[in-house]
């Protein structure tokens, strides 16, 4: 060998060492039932001795599969890695785990700027399908990826702002009802929803609708503390809570559309010397890690990220998952921000 280089072993080398034909090696290593077990063991031992590994990518391509799932995380233009919603990272990790359990690798990209959006992985033979997650505040990105929905393409969307797409979402209406039940059971009399309606964030609207259903079922009128766009969800929550305080609104609890807004509301209440949870209870949605360490720790409602990731992968990879629209169950996590005693 020149320069210390070593030729990579081939299936023909394995065949020669095992004393069989090259097609027998291919069938043995692909698990063909036509090969006797003794012959299969002999081929495997020869392959291991030579350091031969099957080119899985080439084998999958021959079978019409790349063995890869593409995942696009939509961000806001100008977002740094630290400013992306942590729930997006949790969901991304769950998608990667679910894909791995199906024997697939993942090809991940973070996309934010018009003119640089890309989702044609399947057409280019780079992936078997696409999962799209991320913020709905980037309207141009969602319009672009909405256009990928076509016959023959396998695309699934988390929390899509467009109902006609193959989406997976939290059971948001159930979350709203659960929030009201929890707050009333904790002794609060006038819980208010903090969030924006009629925005691309359909899931926020659904949470409000569930909250309103819960309030009316209890004989109470719904209350809305609307948010307006700000640099962060935390700032949206801070501003909305400040307006409630300044107007002297007759409320004693807040159910925020997301944890980040709830954490901003807690900061605004603390700045106004309003005690949480004694005077005002606060809860959110998402179960962000930051909420577990806030003061007081944040009560929240959480979808199961693992189930969400598995549902997205199934929507893309399972042949019978046509027009898949699935709700992921949610659960209450009660912490100090709503527990007075």
Radius of gyration: 26 Å
SS elements, strand count: 12
Label the overall shape: elongated
The helix tally amounts to 12
Name the helicity range: 25-40%
Q: Give the strand content.
A: 15-25%
Structural class: alpha/beta
Task: Note the main sheet.
Answer: 6 strands, parallel
Unreliable stretches (pLDDT < 50, length at least 5) are none
Order of helices and strands: HHHHEHEEHEEHEHEHEHEHEHEE
Main-sheet strand order equals 2-1-3-4-5-11
pLDDT averaged over residues:
88
Termini separation comes to 77 Å
Helices and strands in order:
Blueprint: H1 11-18, H2 22-29, H3 37-50, H4 56-62, E1 68-74, H5 86-101, E2 105-111, E3 130-134, H6 139-146, E4 155-158, E5 167-170, H7 172-185, E6 191-194, H8 202-217, E7 224-225, H9 233-247, E8 253-256, H10 259-271, E9 281-285, H11 289-292, E10 299-303, H12 305-317, E11 326-328, E12 330-333
Parallel strand pairs: 1-2, 1-3, 3-4, 4-5, 5-11, 6-7, 6-8, 8-9, 9-10
Antiparallel strand pairs: 10-12
Helix pairs in contact: 1-2, 1-3, 5-12, 7-8, 9-10
Please describe the structure with a list of short key phrases separated by commas or semicolons:
12 helices, six-stranded parallel sheet, 16% strand, alpha/beta, 12 strands, 40% helix, six-stranded mixed sheet, 341 residues, elongated
Molecular structure report:
This protein has 341 residues and is an alpha/beta fold. The protein is built from 12 helices and 12 strands. It has helices spanning 11-18, 22-29, 37-50, 56-62, 86-101, 139-146, 172-185, 202-217, 233-247, 259-271, 289-292, 305-317, and strands at residues 68-74, 105-111, 130-134, 155-158, 167-170, 191-194, 224-225, 253-256, 281-285, 299-303, 326-328, 330-333. The strands form 2 sheets. It has a 6-stranded parallel sheet, sandwiched between helices. A 6-stranded mixed sheet has the order 7-6-8-9-10-12, with helices on both faces. Helix 8 links the parallel strand 6 and strand 7 (224-225). The longest helix is centred in the first third of the chain and has 16 residues, at 86-101. It is elongated and about 85 Å long.
């Amino acid at each position: 060998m020149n320069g210390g280089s070593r030729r990579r072993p081939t299936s023909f080398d394995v065949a020669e060492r095992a004393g069989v034909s090259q097609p027998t090696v291919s069938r043995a290593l692909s698990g063909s039932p036509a090969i006797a077990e003794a012959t299969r063991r002999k081929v495997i031992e020869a392959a291991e001795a030579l350091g031969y590994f099957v080119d899985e990518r080439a084998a999958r391509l021959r079978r019409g599969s790349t063995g890869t799932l593409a995942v696009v995380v939509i961000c806001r233009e100008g977002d740094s890695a630290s400013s992306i919603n942590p729930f997006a990272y949790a969901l991304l990790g769950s998608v990667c785990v679910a894909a791995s359990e199906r024997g697939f690798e993942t090809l991940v990209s973070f996309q934010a700027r018009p003119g640089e959006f890309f989702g044609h992985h399947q057409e280019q033979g780079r992936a078997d399908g696409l999962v799209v997650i991320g913020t709905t505040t980037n309207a141009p990105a969602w319009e672009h990826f909405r256009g990928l929905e076509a016959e023959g393409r396998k695309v699934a969307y988390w929390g899509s702002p467009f109902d006609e797409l193959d989406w997976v979402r939290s059971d948001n209406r159930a979350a709203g009802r659960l929030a009201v039940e929890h707050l009333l059971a904790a002794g609060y009399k006038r819980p208010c929803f903090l969030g924006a309606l009629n925005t691309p964030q359909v899931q926020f609207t659904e949470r409000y609708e569930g909250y309103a259903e819960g309030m009316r079922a209890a004989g109470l009128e719904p209350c809305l503390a609307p948010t307006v766009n700000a640099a962060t969800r935390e700032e949206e929550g801070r501003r909305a809570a400040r307006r409630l305080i300044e107007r002297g609104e007759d409320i004693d609890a807040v159910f925020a559309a997301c944890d980040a807004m709830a954490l901003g509301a807690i900061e605004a209440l603390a700045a106004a010397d309003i005690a949480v949870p004694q005077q005002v209870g606060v809860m959110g949605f998402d179960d962000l890690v930051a909420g577990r360490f806030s003061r007081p720790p944040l009560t929240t409602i959480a979808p199961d990220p693992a189930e969400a990731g598995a549902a997205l992968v199934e929507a893309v990879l399972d042949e019978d998952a046509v027009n898949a629209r699935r709700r992921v169950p949610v659960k209450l996590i009660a912490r100090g921000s709503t527990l007075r005693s």
